[in-house]
Each structure stands twice: as C-alpha cells, then as structure tokens.
Specification:
The structure holds 2 protein chains of 2 kinds. By secondary structure, chain A is α+β, with helices and mostly antiparallel strands. Chain A is about 40% helix and about 20% strand. Chain A is built from 9 helices and 12 strands. The chains are: A alpha+beta, B mainly alpha.
C-alpha cells in the first residue's frame, strides 16, 4: 500500500506540472499562453511567474502532507504520541514564509497592473469602439464611417485601443491570444489595448453571462498587413454598391422596403436601423449569426428561413417564408462587398 | 416544563414522536437533524442539476438541453449548492453540536432556532417552485444587473430568486444572532473562549460574518425589487443608475459568503484531526486567530471579483494585495493541520480520510486562488473554466469534503450507531477520484480559453476530451454518494452501537450518551481544558470507560414545543411570495406574520 501511494504521489507530482506545460504549449485557437500581442505576452510572463511559485509551494506543502500521512500513521498500540500543543517560533516562521512568497508575486503584479492601464495615445494609435449587443459585437472605426460586426480588422504591429461599452446588459470582450478580457458595461467605457505581433485570424467570445445565447456570442480578429488593412478600411468606408442584376435589385427592394430596414443599416440607402448588425459590407464578413455559422448562401438561407431555430433568443424575429424572396435577398446581400 | 431528572429520568428518555412533535420542536438537536436531512435533499437536487449540465457538455453542439433549460440549471445549481446545501449543512452541525460542545442545554432562543429552520425550508421551496411556474432563474447565482432587471428579464424568474433569497437570508440572520448569543452566554463554567473547540470558534466567526454580510445583499435585492416593481432605476445606466452598484453590494456579501461556506469545515477538520492523530491540535491559538483574521480580511477583498470591470490601477492593486494577504492565515491553518498529523499516530478511519483529503484539495484551491488575486492574470482567468475549477476545489474539495468528514465523525453521536467503515472507504475513494477527474481538467480547459456558463461549445478548440473526462468524473461522484446514502440507511437500521465516545475524542459532546438525552447534560459540566476528556486517568483514548454522567437530582428547565415559529415563517414567506403572485398575498402574509409574532411573544416560555 505504501509503495502504491508513494508511486501515485510521484506520478501525480510529475504529471500535474507536465500537463500544465503541455496545455501551455498548445496552439489551440483560444489558449491563453499562446500570446500573440504585447498585452497578452505581458500577462503570460506574469502568469508564468505565479504558476512557478504555485508549483513550488504545491510540491512542498503537498509533499509535507503526504509524508506526514504515510510516516505518522498508527502502526501498533504504541501508547499515546507526544502531546505537543504547538511551537511559537515555528508558527512565526510559517507565517512569514507565505508572506515572502506573496511579496514575490505582488511586486510584479502591481507593476503589470499599472502597465495594463497605461492606455497608449498619439496619432499612430488606432482606436476602435466596441459595443456589446445581445448577442453579437459591433465595431465602429471613428472618423472612418465604418461600422461592422463580429469580425474585427486590425493592422499588425500598430497600437490598437478598444473602447468597450454596452447599451443593454453586461458583456465581456475576450480574445485570449491578443487582448485578454474587459467587461462591456452600460454607462461605462472600458479600454483594452494591444499590438498584434503577427498576422492571422484570432478567435474570441463574450465571457460574461449575458442571456439566452451567451454561448453563441463569438468573434474573430483579423490581423492584417498594414496595406491590406488600409484597403479594407477604405472599402468599408464606402457606401454600399448598387445592385446590378435583376434578382439582386429585387432583393434590395425587399430589404429596403421591408422590415429588414427597421433593424439593419445599409450605408447609402434609407436603411438606418440600429438594432441588428450594419449590413453595408455584409458579404465581406466571415460569419453570420454572431460568429456561429460560416457566411455562405446556404447558411444565409437557413438563417433567413428561421433565425430563432438556429439561435433561439436572438433579436431577429423576422422570418422570410418565401424561398424565392430569400434567394433574392441573399443575391442582394452578396453584392454588399 | 420542569423535569426532575432524578425522578423522571425514564419519562425524559421517552422522546416525543410523530410528525407533530417535529413540527413544533424547539430542541436544537432535532432542528439540527431537520436541517441536515433537508439540506442533503437539496444537495441531491443540486447534484442532479450538475449531472444534467455535465451531460450537455459531454460533446460539442449537444442538444440534450435547450439553451433556456441549461441556463436555468446552472443558475439553480449554484444557488442551490450555496444557499440550500452547503450553508444549511453547516447549520445542521451548528445546531446539533455547538450547544453540546459548549456544555449548554439548548440555544439561547430555542423558538427562534425553529423559526430559522422553517424559513430555510420555505425559502428553498419558494425558490424551487419557479421550475413549475414560468421557469427557474436563468441569470447565474450572482444575478448581475441589468440582466435581472425587468427590461431583460420580464418573467417572474428574478422575483422568485430575489424573494427566495430574502427569506433564506432571514433564516441565516436569525440563526446568526441566536448562536452569537448562545456562544457568548451559554458556555459551561470554565469554558473560556480559548477553551472552546475549534469547530465552535469557526462557527462563531461564521455567524458574525453572516450577521454582517447578509444586510448588504438584502439591500441589493430590495433595490432590485424596487427596479422591477416600482420603476426605480438603481441599476439602469440609461436612467442614471449603475449596474456596477449591484456588483459591489453583491460581492460585499458574496466574498464573505465564501468564508461562511468554508470556515465551519476548517473547524470540523481542526476537531477531527486531533482525535485521529491522538494528539492536541497543533497551535490552537494560531488556528483560532487565523480564523478571525480570515473573517476580517474576507470583508475587504470583494472587488477581486470585479477586476475585469476596469476599476483602475489603484483599486486593482489594493484589492490584489488584500486578497493575497488572505493566503497567509489560510497557509498558517494548513501548516497547523500538517503539524497536528506530524509525530502523531493517525488512525485512518473514514472521517480522517476525508479530513486529510480536505487539506490536499484545499491546497490546490488555495493556490489557484492566489493566481486569481493577480488582476492581470485574472483578465485571462475570470469567467473561464479555470475559475470553475478553483471554486470547486474550495467549495467541493474543501467544504463538502469537510462536511463529509464531519458526517462520518459525528453521525454516530446523532444516531447512536456506527457507520460501516468499508462502505465509507469506498465512498471516500470514489469521491476523491471522481472529484479530481471532474474538476482538475477544468484548469486546463479554462487556460485553453473555454468560457463558463455556455450551454454549448464549438468543436476544434481543444476542449472535447477534457469535457468528457469532467462528465465521467461527475458521474463517479454521483455513484460515490449512493454508497453514502446506503451506508447511512444501513447504519440507522442495523449499525453497531456507537457508545458514548467511539473515536476516543476529547471534546465535551462525547461525554454524553449517543444519542444524547433531550436535556443534553443532566449536570452542567465544569471545563478545565480544551480537551476535557483527555489527560488524567480517565483519558478516553486509553480506556473504554466512559465518563460517568450520573443523573443528579436537579431541575432541568426545558422550553415547551411551539407551533408559532412555523406559522411566523409561513407568514413571512407568504408576504415575500406576494411580490411574485400579487400584493394581496403580501397583505395576508403580513397579517399572519403580525398575528403569529404577537402570539409568539405572549406564549409562556415553559
């Protein structure tokens, strides 16, 4: 029994840090240790320092406990053990020891706290407004007339400041590899800043429970080369292109004169609704439904047929029952590049 | 009634029976049993909710539950486990054992004690009624405004939640005042504060925390009720309110609440370890003072639940350092428990197994707690499964393991019969394995970016395997509890008689026969040390002779059974339910409440 316990302990003591390291090396889409920006790198460095302190304490204390359990268990009737009531120097020592370990963690923690709140300013900083909705994210690029949803585009190597708020319930903006997490709170504007180190697509989602479809409030960050980003920004600042094919024109008529325009805005048309996502450059987005479905005509068809069946509780209650009308709307939406 | 023990010993031994005697009981031991049984049933309900949650998360994109059902289940799982399981399970030990451990015949206010229990039962029922009327609360146990405001939660769910919590709060407040007075005033001669068993001490600190922490949440819930029913705007930003107000009020209650849940377990462990190690608790005074320190610090760290709300660097730093400070008294406790085992001769009966597992699991929960104390790191951890892992190591690995240690240790005193050691050990190993399989992978899946409180998750994020292990672990935990239930039933029916002191323990409750007589102590004992039953020729660890409690010819003053506590609690609950079902009911409830308080006050005490 003893050898089994010793073995189990040894395996446990090796396995736990090993598994931790393994999970840290993972390149899974939302791994918090796979830092791809200065902001998340700063957090990861601090976090590792804390984790190593924790592992050392864990091994020492758990080791002492297990040693005491094995070594000092009752074997035979030996009479009573020494009736020790305590030891004041020992008590003082093990009060000071954790205090020192905590000081070791507290100093870099406080330094990092102040760095996280040092919001960069200057002409080079790209500021983007982030608004939490039920259940999707809206982005506004001030001064550029660009309003988009779910997909955030930023240039690589440039300071980005997100000004995060909400006009409904509390959400939390979380991109584990780029920006960590900040709450979106009605009546408050929180900031989060980062400089992406490399191009790519980064996954994230809402982290604060915000209602029925909190689980399906996803987002993506597209980190692009500066030139590519500028091009994206210029194109998205343009009004929506006019539809040219007859089917798309019919679709435009359905969207702009129907109920769609009550909730959605399309720049350059009379659609000015602010309840749902801005559709001006809808076709250039990678997903629909707040990041849960790839933006394909088939998925769009399913969505328009019954959005509540795909994401029950979202605010889109309009159902387009006529398949031909759906096709026309899809044809129009696909022209919104 | 006045009982002459010398002449009426026989009559007293015959306990009143029948349902009516339980409804009207004011005996702290019976109230303790009622608390224990009721809370355990709620614990099973909360466990079933957890199993459904875990089944839904077994695979990505599962459709076993609708999003609405899932959100109700995780909300009620949290609410149930905290308010209807762990708190009242602790209250069961509090009610049954504190008077026995301090050498008292009952609590200071026996009828108030009964009132506490009935409020707890009715509040729990009111909350769970929501499952059958319009759906259960679906906004998390923390109920963040404005999601709970009428605009975003137009149904009755938030009203069930707010009113249920208010009634439960009254139950805890009444108990808190009752036991603060009991512990201060009703200790046996010679039982100085520093001779109180650690369990009594930790419960004493807990009752203070309850008395001070419950008013803020009562205020928060009143403001919410005003927002919902009378068009105020306390939490609505667009009308000048602020949702962050809710978070401050809630966590000023919610963080001390964590210690309300865990401190009693600290006390249990501190009583159980010395018994099985056969030596006194190492550093008793340090254990007591660290418990008090934890109680104080518990009130100045609430905002560490809010690091992601962006409070600014100064607030973040202050709350980070305050939070880290809590690790010091907690560490002191852990070292003292290890120090108690050190050089001891620990006999690993089931209670001792649960007690040492408690320490091992609590170390893990404590270390991940220190990680959350660092706000930048917390920006990655909060609202991920890493947090879920952390607080389950504290509240399940800690509180529930502690409560199970306490149950195996003290149930023989309650029932008079021992539990089966073999079944107990099967329960222990299954629960330990299931617990770690269920909650340890949550650390990894959380650091891998899985958010909590989501009814489903996409495939391909590296979350599947961990979720499957967690679900399997949850079912192993569930199976382990079947062994516990079977063990208790078997023990009550045909367990070996326990005798007065089966473990050779040193504290006062073990000087009484098992189960103790209605009047507890025929002669009020005189206490001269922390372990009155240890040391000297009659040391219970050395011989099986029981300290004789010879009934002297004394008059034992016992309070009379009363039905006013249950009527008063019913009136209060009715008044609260009126907010949900219509204000007429509130009127009737208030009338019942006033009439019963009047009758209660004028009822002869004995």
């Amino acid at each position: 029994m003893t050898s089994f316990r010793n073995g189990a302990v040894r395996v446990g003591l090796i396995l736990i840090p090993a598994a931790l390291l393994l999970s840290a090396c993972s390149t899974d889409p939302q791994n918090v240790f796979d830092a791809r920006s200065d902001f998340t790198q700063m957090i990861a460095d601090l976090f590792w320092q804390i984790i190593w302190a924790a592992i050392v304490v864990f091994v020492l204390v758990q080791g002492a406990l297990i040693y005491a359990i094995i070594r000092y268990r009752r074997r035979a009737n030996q009479g009573l053990p020494p009736q020790v009531h305590g030891n004041t120097p020992l008590e003082i020592a093990w009060t000071i020891a954790p205090a020192l370990v905590l000081a070791w963690i507290a100093v870099p923690t406080v330094q990092t706290i102040f760095r996280t709140y040092e919001v960069p300013t200057g002409p080079d900083v790209l500021t983007i407004e982030v608004i939490g909705r039920q259940f999707w994210w809206e982005y506004r690029y001030p001064g550029n007339n660009v309003v988009t949803a779910t997909d955030l585009h930023v240039p690589v190597g440039r300071r980005v400041v997100l000004r995060i708020t909400s006009d409904n319930v509390i959400h939390s903006y979380w991109v584990p590899k780029l920006a960590a997490k900040r709450d979106a709170i009605p009546g408050h504007v929180n900031t989060l800043w980062f400089t992406a180190k490399e191009t790519g697509v980064y996954e994230g989602q809402c982290a604060e429970f915000c209602g029925l479809q909190h689980a399906n409030m996803r987002l993506r960050v597209f980190v692009q080369e500066p030139a590519e980003f500028e091009q994206w920004l210029r194109r998205n600042a343009q009004p929506a292109p006019e539809p040219t094919t007859p089917e798309a024109q019919r679709g435009a008529q359905l969207v702009l004169q129907g109920t769609c325009a009550g909730c959605h805005a399309i720049n350059g048309t009379n659609a000015r609704g602010r309840v749902g996502p801005d559709l001006t450059h809808f076709a250039s987005r990678s997903t629909i439904g707040g990041g849960i479905l790839p933006n394909t005509p088939e998925n769009l068809d399913r969505w328009l047929e019954n959005p509540q069946a795909i994401k029950p509780g979202n605010l889109m209650n309009v159902v387009v029952t006529n398949p031909q009308e759906r096709q026309a709307i899809i044809a129009y939406l696909q022209t919104l590049r | 009634m006045t009982v002459n023990v010398g002449q009426l010993g026989q009559a007293v031994a015959v306990r009143p029976t029948g349902i009516w005697s339980w409804v009207t009981t004011v005996d702290h031991k019976r109230i303790g049993i009622l608390y224990g049984v009721t809370a355990f049933i709620f614990f099973l309900i909360g466990g079933i909710e957890a199993l459904l949650i875990r089944l839904q998360l077994f695979v990505p994109g599962a459709t076993l539950l609708t999003p609405d059902q899932y959100n109700q289940l995780f909300t009620m799982h949290g609410t149930t486990m905290i308010f209807l399981a762990v708190m009242p399970l602790n209250a069961a030990f509090l009610n049954y054992f504190v008077p026995l451990m301090i050498g008292a015949r009952d609590v200071a206010f026996p009828r108030l004690n009964a009132f506490s229990y009935w409020c707890f039962l009715f509040g729990g029922i009111l909350m769970n009624l929501s499952f059958f009327i319009g759906g259960a609360p679906d906004f998390g146990w923390f109920g963040y405004a404005p999601l709970t405001d009428r605009q975003f939660s137009p149904e009755l769910r938030a009203d069930f939640w707010a009113m249920g919590l208010q009634v439960l709060g009254v139950a805890s407040l009444a108990a808190a005042f009752n036991f603060i007075v009991t512990i201060i005033n009703m200790r046996a001669p010679g039982m100085t504060l520093m001779r109180m068993p650690p369990f009594v001490w930790m419960q004493f600190v807990t009752q203070w925390l309850l008395a001070l922490a419950l008013p803020p949440i009562a205020v928060a819930l009143i403001l919410l009720t005003f927002d919902r029913h009378f068009s105020t705007n306390f939490y609505l930003a667009q009308w000048g309110g602020d949702p962050i107000l809710w978070q401050h009020l809630f966590w000023i209650f919610g963080h001390p609440e964590v210690y309300i849940l865990i401190l009693p377990a600290f006390g249990m462990i501190s009583d159980i370890l010395p018994t099985f190690a056969r030596k006194p608790l190492f550093g008793y005074t340090f254990v007591v003072y660290s418990g008090i320190a934890i109680g104080f610090l518990g009130f100045i760290v609430w905002a560490h639940h809010m690091f992601a709300t962006g409070m600014g660097p100064v607030a973040d730093s202050a709350f980070a350092i305050a939070t880290m400070l809590i690790a010091i008294p907690t560490g002191v406790k852990i070292f003292n428990w290890i120090g108690t085992l050190w050089m001891g001769q620990t006999v690993y009966k089931t209670p001792a197994l649960f007690a040492v597992a408690f320490i091992a699991m609590f170390i893990i929960g404590g270390l991940s707690g220190v990680m959350h104390a660092s706000p930048p790191a917390d920006l990655q951890q909060t609202d991920s499964y890493f947090i879920v892992a952390h607080f389950h190591y504290v509240l399940f690995g800690g509180a529930i393991f502690g409560i199970m240690a306490g149950a195996y240790y003290w149930l023989p005193k309650v029932t008079g019969r021992l539990l089966d050691e073999r079944l107990g050990k099967i329960h222990f190993w299954l629960m330990l394995i299931g617990f770690n399989l269920s909650f340890f992978p949550m650390h990894f899946v959380g650091l891998n970016g899985m958010p909590r409180r989501t009814y489903t998750y996409p495939a391909g994020f590296g979350w599947e395997l961990m979720n499957q292990l967690e679900t399997i672990g949850a079912f192993i935990i569930a199976i382990s509890f079947l062994f516990f239930i079977y063990n208790v039933i078997k023990s009550v029916r045909s367990g070996e008689p326990a005798g007065a002191n089966p473990w050779g323990a040193g504290t006062l409750e073990w000087s009484l026969p098992s189960p103790p007589p209605v009047y507890n102590f025929a002669t009020v004992p005189v206490v001269r040390s922390l372990y009155p039953l240890w040391g000297g020729p009659n040391d219970s660890r050395l011989s099986s002779t029981q300290p004789a409690a010879a009934p002297a010819d004394v008059h034992v003053h016992l309070p009379k059974p009363s039905y006013w506590p249950i009527v008063t609690a019913f009136g209060l609950t009715l008044a609260a339910a009126g907010i949900i079902f219509g204000y007429v009911l509130t009127g009737i409830g208030v009338l019942v409440l006033l009439a019963s308080i009047y009758s209660w006050a004028l009822e002869p005490a004995s």
